[in-house]
Amino acid sequence: MKHRIKARTVGKGIALASAGFAAALALSTSASAAPSLSVSPNSSLSDGQSVTVSGSGYKPGSTIVLLQCDGDKPQGTACDKQALVAAAADAKGGIKATFTVHKQFTGSNMAGGSGTSKVDCSSGHCYIGATDASHPGAQGAGVVLTFS
């Protein structure tokens, strides 16, 4: 199942010191072609399961940040920061990465606020979101997850 997420912000100001770059997680509308994202599998998932995330439509060479977030909360306010994955877009703007999903996690506010919240994805409201950290404000994409 593919979904495009349009939003004000998934998050701003996340610093990734170990990777040596600062990423701004922003999902907004854009005049260029919308990126697409797929997650396989994305249903009947188990806690700690590895999934394959593939995407296209990103700017070549961009750093694409992948996060699992709670779709019932304002975007970017309850994401699993511990599971964050960064993927480099290839020469054609494609990405492919392995991502570990969690049925429950402590959600961090990636939208510039503070605090954490307990997230339970068993009711099907969580998603993996992707955004271009190299080009803040670029449109992102996301895929809804369901757990068994």
Report on the structure:
The chain has 148 residues and is mostly beta strands. The strands form 4 sheets. A 4-stranded antiparallel β-sheet has the order 6-5-10-11, with no helix packed on it. Strands 3-4-7 form a 3-stranded antiparallel β-sheet, with no helix packed on it. Strands 1-2 form a two-stranded antiparallel sheet. The protein has one domain: Immunoglobulin-like (Sandwich), CATH 2.60.40.230. It starts with 13 loop residues before the first strand and ends with a strand. 40% of the residues are buried.
CATH architecture: Sandwich
Radius of gyration: 14 Å
Mean pLDDT: 81
Question: What is the CA–CA distance across the termini?
Answer: 17 Å
Portion of residues in helices? under 10%
Structural domain count? 1
CATH superfamily: Neocarzinostatin-like
Provide the succession of SSEs. Answer: EEEEEEEEEEE
User: Treating each run of at least 4 consecutive H or I residues as one helix, how many helices?
Assistant: 0
Question: Which strand order spans the largest sheet, edge to edge or round the barrel?
Answer: 6-5-10-11
DSSP strand content: 35-45%
The class by helix and strand makeup works out as mainly beta
What's the CATH class label?
Mainly Beta
User: How many strands in all?
Assistant: 11
Please mark out the parts with pLDDT under 50 across 5 or more consecutive residues, or reply none: 1-31
CATH topology: Immunoglobulin-like
* Shape estimate: globular
